[in-house]
Amino acid sequence: MQAIVVHAYGNSEQLQWREWPDPEPGSGQVRIRTRLTSVNFADIAARRGGYDAGAAPPFVPGLDVVGTVEALGPGVRDLEVGTRVAAFPLGGSYATLTLAPAALTFPVPDTLGDEAVAGLTVLTTAYGLLTRAGRLSPGETVLVHAAAGGVGSTAVQLARVLGAGRVIGTAGSARKCDFVRALGADFAIHSLEEDFAQRVLEVTGGTGADLILDPVSGAVLERGLSCLAPFGRLVSYSQMTERPAQISTRPLHRQNRAVIGFSNGHLRRSRPEALRPDVEALLRLLEEGRLKLQIGARFPLSEAARAHDLIESRQNVGKVLLVP
């Protein structure tokens, strides 16, 4: 098969298009012929060498795949060869073939195209942030950082679907703010020109946000605590900055606030069975047209380096796809 291989940690030049051994499915596994895969920030972190769950070079990156089941390993009963599926692979998905556990492989309804489910990672991450970690209640105010990205653009839509009373998004340009508002956010804050915490307090009448979704950490998380409402939850799910956040516990226990960590990857590895009801709920929302994965760009799989460069430049909106 052909694959993108990280042959050494470093910049996008370390992504090489080359021949790679065809994978053979073991017990409880399926082999999938790739139709689409997507780029996640974790892929970039793994390429740089800063991702805790990343592999040592040489390795194939990629966290999700849409494709067709080509072969079944021993013990697989609920899937058939030829079925179109979305899956979380065992190895990387930047390849023409990939292996996935049957437990993390989900048939795609005929009513949905490949691109509708091409970002299984961002779909389940956004859903988990709002439901599992964030415990969103109807009527609450949600602040979504990096709201123009893959997870953020999905979370803005899902927050509305799940009954949020007010949705606020931050983004790094006026163009991105327009995009966030078009997704259904009540307010979009230009994070490079405005103090987001002050603005959140203004639009909430001084109460603050009940739920904050933060992939940035560092100073952004620290500042976020100043606009977190009493009984509010701040969910940290990545660290885009080099410096981790440093927080005081006093503002937490004095007003029943919480800082919660969430990792979709850890959930996938430790409790894979928990993702099936989430995926089934998301597929229903996609079929009903209540949720739409925002596609910002498409690249040939062989040009994955260009896709990484686009995301690292922070110019992209929505999801970036790779097509074999």
From TrEMBL:
<dbReference type="InterPro" id="IPR002364">
    <property type="entry name" value="Quin_OxRdtase/zeta-crystal_CS"/>
</dbReference>
<dbReference type="InterPro" id="IPR020843">
    <property type="entry name" value="ER"/>
</dbReference>
<protein>
    <submittedName>
        <fullName>NADPH2:quinone reductase</fullName>
        <ecNumber>1.6.5.5</ecNumber>
    </submittedName>
</protein>
<feature type="domain" description="Enoyl reductase (ER)">
    <location>
        <begin position="10"/>
        <end position="322"/>
    </location>
</feature>
<dbReference type="GO" id="GO:0070402">
    <property type="term" value="F:NADPH binding"/>
</dbReference>
<dbReference type="InterPro" id="IPR013149">
    <property type="entry name" value="ADH-like_C"/>
</dbReference>
<dbReference type="InterPro" id="IPR013154">
    <property type="entry name" value="ADH-like_N"/>
</dbReference>
<dbReference type="Pfam" id="PF00107">
    <property type="entry name" value="ADH_zinc_N"/>
</dbReference>
<dbReference type="InterPro" id="IPR036291">
    <property type="entry name" value="NAD(P)-bd_dom_sf"/>
</dbReference>
<dbReference type="GO" id="GO:0008270">
    <property type="term" value="F:zinc ion binding"/>
</dbReference>
<keyword id="KW-0521">NADP</keyword>
<dbReference type="GO" id="GO:0003960">
    <property type="term" value="F:quinone reductase (NADPH) activity"/>
</dbReference>
<dbReference type="InterPro" id="IPR011032">
    <property type="entry name" value="GroES-like_sf"/>
</dbReference>
<dbReference type="Pfam" id="PF08240">
    <property type="entry name" value="ADH_N"/>
</dbReference>
<dbReference type="GO" id="GO:0035925">
    <property type="term" value="F:mRNA 3'-UTR AU-rich region binding"/>
</dbReference>
<dbReference type="GO" id="GO:0005829">
    <property type="term" value="C:cytosol"/>
</dbReference>
<keyword id="KW-0560">Oxidoreductase</keyword>
